[in-house]
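To the wet lab folks,

You asked to see what we're planning to order before we commit. Fair enough. Below is the target structure as C-alpha cells, and below that is the sequence we designed to fit it. If anything looks off to you, flag it before the synthesis order goes out.
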C-alpha cells in the first residue's frame, strides 16, 4: 500500500494517515460512477477513453477540469490523493498491459482475450483480498462531504458500503457475479477457470507471463507514487 511506501516522505504519509478513510475511498471512487443518480460513464470519472490515445496524465486532466480538487484541504485533499493514485495506476495498466497485450496482440480470438483480461484482474483481486480486509474499518469511517465535484456523496457512500461489505470479515466477494455477464459466463464457470491451473498456464500465462504482470504492477506503483507526491507537494501545497 502507498501509505507504507518509504519512498513517500514521512510527513506526507503521516498527513494521509490522519485521513486514511478519505484516502482509501478516493482510491476506489472512480469505479463507482454507475451509482450516481445522473448518468455517468467511465470516461467521466477516469478522464481517458479506451478508444483514444492518452493525451496527458488523466489525473492532470481531472485537476484542470476541476480546479477545486487541486486546492483541496484536509480529508478532501487525502481523497483527491487517493483518486490520483487510482488514475495513475489505471493509466499505466492501459498503456503497458491492457492495450498492447490484450488489445493489439492477437494471441487468441478477441472475445477470449477479453475473457482472459477479466481472469487476470480477478487473480489480482483475490491475491490482494487479505490486504484489503485490513483496511475495511478505515474505509467504512470515510464520510464524504462534497469531496468530489462530479461524484455526489450518495454515490460515494453507496460505493463505499458495497466494497466494504465484500472485504469485511465474513464478506462475500461479488467480483465473479459482476464480471460473468460481461464475458458470457456464469460465476461458477469463471470460478472453475480460476481454479484450473493448467488452463491458466496455457491460456493466460503463456501469453501474458507472470513476470510481465510483475513489471507492469511495479510501474503502476511507481507512477502512482510519483503522481501522488507531485500533487501533494507541488500542486496542493502551492494552491
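Sequence we intend to order:
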Amino acid at each position: 500500500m502507498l501509505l507504507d511506501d518509504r519512498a513517500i516522505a514521512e510527513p506526507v504519509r503521516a498527513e494521509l494517515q490522519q485521513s486514511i478513510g478519505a484516502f482509501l475511498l478516493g482510491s476506489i471512487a472512480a469505479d463507482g460512477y454507475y451509482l450516481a443518480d445522473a448518468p455517468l460513464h467511465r470516461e467521466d470519472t477516469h478522464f481517458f477513453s479506451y478508444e483514444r490515445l492518452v493525451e496527458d496524465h488523466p489525473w492532470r486532466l481531472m485537476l484542470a477540469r476541476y480546479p477545486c480538487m487541486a486546492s483541496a484541504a484536509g480529508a478532501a485533499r487525502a481523497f483527491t490523493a487517493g483518486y490520483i493514485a487510482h488514475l495513475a495506476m489505471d493509466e499505466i495498466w492501459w498503456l503497458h498491459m491492457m492495450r498492447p497485450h490484450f488489445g493489439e496482440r492477437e494471441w487468441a480470438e478477441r472475445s477470449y482475450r477479453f475473457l482472459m483480461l477479466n481472469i487476470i484482474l480477478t487473480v489480482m483481486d483475490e491475491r490482494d483480498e487479505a490486504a484489503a480486509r485490513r483496511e475495511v474499518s478505515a474505509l467504512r469511517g470515510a464520510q464524504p462531504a462534497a469531496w468530489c465535484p462530479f461524484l455526489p456523496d450518495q454515490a460515494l457512500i453507496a460505493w463505499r458500503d458495497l466494497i466494504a461489505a465484500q472485504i469485511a470479515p465474513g464478506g462475500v466477494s461479488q467480483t465473479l457475479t459482476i464480471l460473468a455477464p460481461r464475458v458470457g459466463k456464469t460465476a461458477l464457470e469463471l470460478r472453475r477457470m480460476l481454479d484450473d491451473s493448467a488452463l491458466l498456464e496455457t491460456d493466460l500465462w503463456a501469453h501474458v507471463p507472470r513476470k510481465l504482470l510483475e513489471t507492469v504492477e511495479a510501474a503502476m506503483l511507481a507512477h502512482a507514487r510519483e503522481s501522488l507526491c507531485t500533487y501533494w507537494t507541488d500542486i496542493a501545497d502551492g494552491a
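Structural context that might help your review: Residues 2-236 form one domain. The chain has 14 helices and no strands.

Thanks,
Computational group
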